[in-house]
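Repro:
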Amino acid sequence: MTETVPLQPITPASPAIEPPVTPAAPASTVTPPVQNEEKKFTQADLDRVITERLAQEKRVAEEKSKKQKDEDLKKELTEKQEWQKLAETTKKELDEAKALYEAERLLNLKRTIGIKHNIPLELVDRLKGETETEIEADAVKMAAFFIASGQPPAKLPVGITPTNPKGDATVKETIEEKRKRLLS
Protein backbone atom coordinates (compact mmCIF):
# COMPACT_ATOMS: atom_id res chain seq x y z
CA MET A 1 0.00 0.00 0.00
CA THR A 2 1.12 3.25 -0.72
CA GLU A 3 0.89 6.12 1.51
CA THR A 4 -0.01 9.52 0.30
CA VAL A 5 2.08 12.36 1.41
CA PRO A 6 0.55 15.78 1.36
CA LEU A 7 2.36 18.21 -0.97
CA GLN A 8 3.68 21.33 0.48
CA PRO A 9 3.82 24.51 -1.54
CA ILE A 10 7.26 25.69 -2.59
CA THR A 11 8.07 29.17 -1.47
CA PRO A 12 11.19 31.12 -2.14
CA ALA A 13 11.82 31.53 1.50
CA SER A 14 11.95 27.88 1.83
CA PRO A 15 15.45 26.74 2.82
CA ALA A 16 15.17 23.61 0.76
CA ILE A 17 15.25 25.35 -2.63
CA GLU A 18 18.03 27.66 -3.54
CA PRO A 19 17.83 30.09 -6.45
CA PRO A 20 19.67 28.99 -9.57
CA VAL A 21 23.19 30.20 -9.83
CA THR A 22 24.11 32.08 -13.00
CA PRO A 23 27.67 32.13 -14.20
CA ALA A 24 29.50 35.27 -13.27
CA ALA A 25 29.89 37.78 -16.09
CA PRO A 26 33.21 39.42 -16.70
CA ALA A 27 33.67 42.63 -14.75
CA SER A 28 33.84 44.85 -17.86
CA THR A 29 30.26 44.07 -18.97
CA VAL A 30 28.62 44.56 -15.63
CA THR A 31 26.34 47.56 -15.69
CA PRO A 32 25.52 49.50 -12.60
CA PRO A 33 21.95 49.34 -11.45
CA VAL A 34 19.63 51.99 -12.95
CA GLN A 35 18.63 54.64 -10.52
CA ASN A 36 15.40 56.54 -10.92
CA GLU A 37 16.87 59.68 -9.47
CA GLU A 38 16.53 62.89 -11.55
CA LYS A 39 19.70 64.63 -12.57
CA LYS A 40 20.02 67.97 -10.90
CA PHE A 41 21.32 71.01 -12.83
CA THR A 42 22.89 74.10 -11.41
CA GLN A 43 22.06 77.58 -12.65
CA ALA A 44 25.43 77.73 -14.42
CA ASP A 45 24.61 74.48 -16.28
CA LEU A 46 21.24 75.86 -17.39
CA ASP A 47 22.81 79.14 -18.54
CA ARG A 48 25.46 77.24 -20.52
CA VAL A 49 22.86 74.98 -22.21
CA ILE A 50 20.63 77.92 -23.08
CA THR A 51 23.58 79.93 -24.42
CA GLU A 52 24.70 77.00 -26.60
CA ARG A 53 21.16 76.47 -27.91
CA LEU A 54 20.75 80.18 -28.72
CA ALA A 55 24.13 80.27 -30.48
CA GLN A 56 23.16 77.21 -32.52
CA GLU A 57 19.81 78.75 -33.50
CA LYS A 58 21.57 81.99 -34.42
CA ARG A 59 24.03 80.11 -36.67
CA VAL A 60 21.18 78.24 -38.37
CA ALA A 61 19.28 81.50 -38.93
CA GLU A 62 22.40 83.21 -40.33
CA GLU A 63 23.04 80.29 -42.69
CA LYS A 64 19.45 80.42 -43.94
CA SER A 65 19.70 84.18 -44.37
CA LYS A 66 22.99 83.86 -46.24
CA LYS A 67 21.55 81.18 -48.54
CA GLN A 68 18.50 83.36 -49.24
CA LYS A 69 20.72 86.38 -49.98
CA ASP A 70 22.87 84.27 -52.31
CA GLU A 71 19.80 83.00 -54.16
CA ASP A 72 18.41 86.55 -54.46
CA LEU A 73 21.78 87.79 -55.71
CA LYS A 74 21.98 85.01 -58.29
CA LYS A 75 18.44 85.76 -59.45
CA GLU A 76 19.19 89.48 -59.69
CA LEU A 77 22.43 88.80 -61.58
CA THR A 78 20.59 86.52 -64.01
CA GLU A 79 17.96 89.22 -64.61
CA LYS A 80 20.69 91.83 -65.14
CA GLN A 81 22.44 89.55 -67.63
CA GLU A 82 19.18 89.05 -69.51
CA TRP A 83 18.60 92.81 -69.60
CA GLN A 84 22.18 93.36 -70.66
CA LYS A 85 21.80 90.85 -73.51
CA LEU A 86 18.56 92.52 -74.55
CA ALA A 87 20.21 95.95 -74.43
CA GLU A 88 23.15 94.71 -76.53
CA THR A 89 20.80 93.15 -79.08
CA THR A 90 18.72 96.31 -79.26
CA LYS A 91 21.83 98.47 -79.60
CA LYS A 92 23.11 96.26 -82.42
CA GLU A 93 19.76 96.49 -84.21
CA LEU A 94 19.70 100.26 -83.72
CA ASP A 95 23.24 100.60 -85.10
CA GLU A 96 22.27 98.52 -88.14
CA ALA A 97 19.17 100.65 -88.68
CA LYS A 98 21.23 103.83 -88.36
CA ALA A 99 23.77 102.54 -90.87
CA LEU A 100 21.00 101.59 -93.31
CA TYR A 101 19.33 104.97 -92.84
CA GLU A 102 22.62 106.80 -93.39
CA ALA A 103 23.33 104.80 -96.56
CA GLU A 104 19.85 105.55 -97.93
CA ARG A 105 20.15 109.22 -96.99
CA LEU A 106 23.52 109.46 -98.72
CA LEU A 107 22.21 107.73 -101.85
CA ASN A 108 19.20 110.03 -101.95
CA LEU A 109 21.47 113.05 -101.52
CA LYS A 110 23.69 111.85 -104.38
CA ARG A 111 20.68 111.35 -106.64
CA THR A 112 19.32 114.79 -105.83
CA ILE A 113 22.65 116.49 -106.46
CA GLY A 114 23.25 114.37 -109.59
CA ILE A 115 19.90 115.37 -111.07
CA LYS A 116 20.60 118.99 -110.19
CA HIS A 117 23.89 118.86 -112.16
CA ASN A 118 22.50 116.76 -115.06
CA ILE A 119 24.57 113.67 -114.22
CA PRO A 120 23.18 110.40 -115.64
CA LEU A 121 21.46 108.31 -112.95
CA GLU A 122 23.67 105.32 -113.75
CA LEU A 123 26.70 107.33 -112.59
CA VAL A 124 25.18 109.02 -109.53
CA ASP A 125 26.47 106.20 -107.30
CA ARG A 126 30.01 107.17 -108.28
CA LEU A 127 29.77 110.57 -106.64
CA LYS A 128 32.16 110.77 -103.69
CA GLY A 129 31.77 112.42 -100.32
CA GLU A 130 29.98 112.07 -97.02
CA THR A 131 28.52 115.56 -96.73
CA GLU A 132 26.41 117.60 -99.08
CA THR A 133 29.29 120.00 -99.74
CA GLU A 134 31.70 117.19 -100.69
CA ILE A 135 29.17 115.51 -102.95
CA GLU A 136 28.27 118.85 -104.53
CA ALA A 137 31.95 119.55 -105.31
CA ASP A 138 32.37 116.11 -106.90
CA ALA A 139 29.14 116.56 -108.91
CA VAL A 140 30.41 119.88 -110.27
CA LYS A 141 33.61 118.17 -111.46
CA MET A 142 31.68 115.29 -113.03
CA ALA A 143 29.19 117.66 -114.69
CA ALA A 144 32.07 119.67 -116.17
CA PHE A 145 33.41 116.45 -117.67
CA PHE A 146 30.03 115.70 -119.29
CA ILE A 147 29.70 119.23 -120.65
CA ALA A 148 33.22 119.08 -122.08
CA SER A 149 32.59 115.68 -123.67
CA GLY A 150 29.28 116.74 -125.21
CA GLN A 151 27.16 114.14 -123.36
CA PRO A 152 23.43 114.91 -123.23
CA PRO A 153 22.01 115.98 -119.84
CA ALA A 154 20.54 113.36 -117.59
CA LYS A 155 16.92 112.49 -118.01
CA LEU A 156 14.55 112.09 -115.10
CA PRO A 157 13.72 108.49 -114.24
CA VAL A 158 10.57 107.01 -115.72
CA GLY A 159 7.47 108.11 -113.80
CA ILE A 160 9.10 111.18 -112.24
CA THR A 161 7.89 114.50 -113.56
CA PRO A 162 8.60 117.96 -112.29
CA THR A 163 5.93 119.50 -110.13
CA ASN A 164 5.74 122.54 -112.35
CA PRO A 165 6.29 121.40 -115.94
CA LYS A 166 6.76 124.92 -117.21
CA GLY A 167 9.73 125.53 -114.87
CA ASP A 168 8.31 128.80 -113.58
CA ALA A 169 7.01 128.79 -110.02
CA THR A 170 4.81 131.85 -110.65
CA VAL A 171 2.87 130.22 -113.48
CA LYS A 172 0.01 128.11 -112.23
CA GLU A 173 -1.31 124.99 -113.89
CA THR A 174 -4.99 124.66 -114.49
CA ILE A 175 -6.83 121.69 -113.09
CA GLU A 176 -7.29 120.34 -116.57
CA GLU A 177 -3.54 120.57 -117.26
CA LYS A 178 -2.76 118.79 -113.98
CA ARG A 179 -5.17 115.95 -114.78
CA LYS A 180 -3.71 115.58 -118.21
CA ARG A 181 -0.12 115.58 -116.89
CA LEU A 182 -0.75 113.23 -113.95
CA LEU A 183 -3.05 110.75 -115.67
CA SER A 184 -1.11 110.40 -118.91
